[in-house]
Amino acid sequence: MSKRHPIYLDNHATTPLDPRALEAMMPYLTEMFGNPHSTNHLYGYEAEAAVEYARERIANVIGAEPREIIFTSGATESNNLAIKGAGYFQERLETGARRHIVTAVTEHKCVLESVRRLERQGFRVTWLGVDGDGRIDLEELQAALTDETLLVSLMAANNEIGTLAPLAEIGALCRARGVMFHTDAAQAFGKIPLDVNAMNIDLMSISGHKVYGPKGIGALYVRRRPRVRLEPLIDGGGQERALRSGTLATSLCVGFGEAAAIAADKMAAEGPRLKGLRDRLRDGLLAGLSGIHVNGPGPNGPRLPNNLNISFGGVDAGILMASLKGLAVSSGSACSTASVEPSYVLRAVGQSDELSRASLRFGIGRFNTEADIETAVTQIVTAVTHLRLAAGAASAAQ
Question: Of 8, 225, 230, 343, whose CB neighbour count within 10 A is largest?
Fold first, then answer.
């Protein structure tokens, strides 16, 4: 990374490609260029073998069978395939169709929009609320499940405030009622332990670029026993168990597989290290500034180890980000070209629109150091103090 680049603290948006993943990919971008579906010669056979090895490595991270891993372009496609695919398959049934879906108001946009698509097509949807930490009420979930419920879709870790879902408890409730359980695990995969069998997960969406792998590759775990039935969204040659047709990009699959294996190997040590950096950033900001609020679970709550979301009272997040020339961070709100709109996630946890517009999300990553955190604290404290003084002077002048 060039010294001209700011310190990168936006690892929830994307992670840098691990050099080891890039090294694994390179042969499949050059001399080993075969189509993995053309296995009647050496080039295709080599590519197929590489794809299947990557599939196995990804499956191992979550306790799945390799053939239960369906490669996609990323978590957005995986979420669409899981939710719409389950719904569209039900629409083909002449009898016994289930047309009820349960999800939460804090899900990622691609989940919310996929569910709304089915809702417009006649499916009934229960939208679960969350508490101040972003957690659903398990009793409310249990009460929502009926004999008509097809699918529960709840994310493993929230992409804004890092809240971890009680996946095993949710899975147990779903399995007891014969309901499919889908989780968007894009932020959680490779960061926290996941086991699709222990947690009774039937569908899991993951993405390469959230775990130091390449962009443009993801996967959907699709349980075989008890069998999950989906209607494919892409028609073609019937690749990926006929669920996702199209020629796979061998290099991307290989890079994802390498990144997954590295994440699994480093998870036990990396989680505590990132949590230590996260806590150091939080404590430094709390010590240096008043009028700030940590959004989401507290220090000992169920939260991703690398996540921090803070509202800086009296400061506009867009202006603050523009002031932080040496840092790459993102707003906890959805940004438009003209303004920072209140985050629907922060609204759901009870945050005011004013503080929602003043929030920043920090995603600490594998390549961040203690020096990065100390620099970030200094820059943020200085910028917030300056902006507050300037706002106070402007107000007094009026």
Answer: 343
Structural domains in the chain (count)? 2
Same domain, 272 and 288: yes
Of 110, 174, 253, 335, the catalytic one is 335
Tens-digit pLDDT profile for residues 22-79: 999 999 999 999 999 999 999 999 999 999 999 999 999 999 999 999 999 999 999 9
Does residue 279 sit in the same domain as residue 240? no
**Does 246 map to a domain?**
yes
Q: Distance between CA atoms of 179 and 172, rounded to whole angstroms? A: 10
pLDDT tens-digit readout, 92-104: 998 899 999 999 9
List all residues 6 or more positions away from 43 whose beta carbon is below 8 Å from its beta carbon.
32, 33, 34, 35
Per-residue pLDDT tens over the stretch 250-294: 999 999 999 999 999 999 999 999 999 999 999 999 999 999 999
How many helical (H) and strand (E) elements, i.e. helices and strands, does the chain have?
A: 11, 13
Please indicate, yes or no, whether the overall pTM of this predicted structure exceeds 0.90: yes
Q: Is the pLDDT of residue 335 over 90?
A: no
Q: Is residue 1 part of a domain?
A: no
- Cis ω on the peptide bond leading into residue 36 (within 30° of 0)? no
- CATH code of the domain containing 83: 3.40.640.10
Residue of 331, 314, 337 lying closest to 394 (CA atoms)? 314
Q: Which domain holds residue 315?
A: 7-12+267-397
Domain finish residue from 262, 295, 315: 262
